[in-house]
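Hi support team,

I submitted a single chain yesterday and got back a structure, but I'm not sure I'm reading the token output correctly. Could someone confirm the output below corresponds to the sequence I sent? I've pasted both exactly as they appear in my results page.

Thanks,
R.
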Amino acid sequence: MKHLAIKEILARIHQAGQFDELRVTRDQVHEMFREHLLFAYSAEFARDINTIHDSLIQRTIALAEQQLEARGMGRPPAPYAFMLFGSGGRSEQTLWSDQDNGLIYEEPGDCSGEASALYFAELVGCILQGLEVLGYPPCQGNVVSSNPQWRKTLSSYMEMMHVWFAEPNWENVRYLLILADMRCIYGAPHLVERLKEEMITYIQQHGEILPFLLSNTLHHKITLGVFGQLIKERYGEDAGGFDIKYGAYIPIVNGIRLLSLQAGIAASSTLQRLVLLKEGGFVAEPLIDRWRQAFEITLRLRDSTPFQVEEGMYTTRSKLSAEQLTKERRASLKFALRVGMDLQKYVKKSLESKEGNQREKR
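Hi R., thanks for writing in. Yes, this is the structure output for that exact sequence:
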């Protein structure tokens, strides 16, 4: 397995007939990529990781459909889309990402709504069981398709989203920003596209929602001290280490996402958002280049964090250990953090400027 090309890995995944076979392949690929990560990192490496994750999840869903058909439940009663949120939605998964997902389906036709709902509840139960066999732990925040909130018809999703817009408390805004990163990984992409289009249109027409989105976006602060020092973990087994996920990666992702929503950009990938912000003339190219460089540093470091397998699940605390904070890593991390702080200031200023322009027009 060590020297298999990406095409060979994907072919093996596609040919798997059981969840256990997929788990064997994932374990082997994980070791192969982990060994490679010790020596080099590249954008191609990150793309390959996400391509393999996508393929594993897609095959899991296909096998789940087959299992339901074998039980006599037939084929899906309506077009549906299985979507990923979080890093999966942004195509930024690490080797050990968890499950953040949802399912959206069209209004039932000949099939009753109750029968359709029952089928999709059974389907996601089978899918999530398969993903657990593969070692993907469920989202701790219950943003997963077994939760009825994240498994419903398109019209029900639309209604739920508009309730969140109308009542923009902290939790509802958090849900809106989760939806902003959704990506169809299997099924009917037009369902996800219609929901995303509705979200973008609302934000474009109701600028008053942006301050609420900003407050949530800036919740995670860049963890760089006033004297330019890294703010490290003080206690526990991670003492002396650095929280790369919430101290660097998430603040940068959040800032770029909000600028994209403000600009009417529907893309979920952070890198694609940067491209479209530049091409649309929304942000000057030198800034985009600095943001991309900082973002790619956080991606590389996030992929370097220690991991563990607990009860068969791949997990990580997303923290660089004290030993990993070499002089070179500290220097690149501090650069990314300084850029991240400037990005957060830029985002705040951009929204305040837009609010001022709107007040003047009134």
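A quick pointer for reading it: The chain has a mean pLDDT of 93. Let us know if anything else looks off.

Best,
Support desk
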